[in-house]
Amino acid sequence: MDVQVNDSNFDEIVLKSDKPVMVDFWAEWCGPCRMIAPFMEEISKEFGDKALVVKCDVDESPGVAAKFGIRNIPTVLFFKNGEVADKQVGAVPKANFANKLEALLD
Q1: What is the torsion angle, in degrees rounded to the nearest 10, for the CA atoms of residue 23, residue 25, residue 31 and residue 32?
Q2: pLDDT in tens, 8-39
Q3: Which of 14, 45, 53, 64 is at a distance of 20 to 30 A from 105, taking alpha carbons?
Q4: Is 30 a catalytic residue?
Q5: Residue 24 carries which DSSP code?
Q6: Beta strand 75-80 with 83-89: parallel, antiparallel or unpaired?
Q7: Which of 14, 21, 23, 33 is catalytic?
Q8: For the whole model, what pTM was predicted?
Q9: Annotated active-site residue in 21, 23, 30, 64
C-alpha cells in the first residue's frame, strides 16, 4: 500500500474509483497515526483488488483535509461511488477499519 493521495490527485484516485476506498488522513508527527499504519498495510493486502487503501498526509495536502473537515488525526474516511460513506476518528482496533470497509463491498 504505497498509494499516497494529495491535493492534486485525490479526485482522480479516490472520487473516481470504481471500488470502495479507505483514506487514512495522517501526519508524520502523529503517534496514533503511526500506531494504526500497520493495520492499513494489512487491510490493503487482505482486500487486494476489492478495495483501495490510500494515505493522505494532512501537512502536505491541506486542501483535501479542509475539504473533508479533517480536524483530528488519524481520521479514516471510507468512500463509495465518490461519496463519503463512513468515517472513523482515532486509533481503534484493526477490525473496526476492516468491518467498515467490508460493509462497502457489493
Answers
A1: -50
A2: 999 999 999 999 999 999 999 999 999 999 99
A3: 64
A4: yes
A5: E
A6: antiparallel
A7: 33
A8: 0.96
A9: 30
